[in-house]
Amino acid sequence: MSRKFFVGGNWKMNGSKKVADELLSNLVKGPLDPNVEVLIGVPAIYLDFVKEKAPCNIYVAAQNCYKTEKGAFTGEISPSMLKDIGIDWVILGHSERRQIFQEADTLIAEKVNHALESGLSVVACIGETLEEREAGQTEAVVAKQIKAIKDKICNWQNVVIAYEPVWAIGTGKTASPQQAQDVHKILRKWLADEVNEAVAKTTRIIYGGSVTASNCKELAKECDIDGFLVGGASLKPEFVDIVNANQ
Ligand SMILES: O=C[C@H](O)COP(=O)(O)O
User: Fold this and answer.
1) ipTM, 2 decimals?
2) Cα–Cα dist 151/9, whole Å
3) Coiled-coil regions in this chain (predicted)?
4) Catalytic amino acids?
5) What is the pTM of this model?
6) Which of 8, 99, 170, 184 is most buried by a 10 A CB count?
7) How far apart are CA 60 and CA 48, in angstroms?
8) 212 lines ligand 1 (CB under 6 A)
């Protein structure tokens, strides 16, 4: 069963209206491979601005949202607020949320569940630290992270899993195609064993961590790598080349 290639650009806490305009015009100029689903994860304050201007073949995503709809949660935004301005996607569980903002597996899983129940599609991020990899714990760590999500959700249809080894994020140290493939394969088997075969076959598992125009083609050749979540390079013109990695 073929899975449509999926490339997300996570702008993180970068940009301005001017930068957003530049990045959007670069994407519009493309040309983008029509066989690829493309997403941009935009700082909350620019979501409305970008959504108004983005062409309809580009998904606009929030980089976070909370696990409930409304109330006394200063600084948070809810899935229904995102839906209200036409946003259909959210990135959850990014390692920067886990590490800097101490988001635990349970909270992330609750957020994923609530986002899905509210009609959003989710890019759910998981990945091990360097210490965990060096201690031989990669498989156990990603299994624990994905299990937390599995325990809360009942439908995987609108989930994309992003495997992002923390040691590769923003460091220029990309996982080798084999290192990434090994973990993606483990995750797909985990889905087959713990959820079901159909979910394992259809769920996109994308790789993130220092993906660039120079390394994307080799990574894209691996059979369990269904796309990328791109940080730094999504703020550069080369993002178009990464979207087109399969061409
Ligand atoms: O969400 C994207 C990842 O954190 C990867 O970031 P990076 O491409 O700058 O390493």
Assistant:
1) 0.99
2) 28
3) none
4) 94, 164
5) 0.97
6) 8
7) 9
8) no
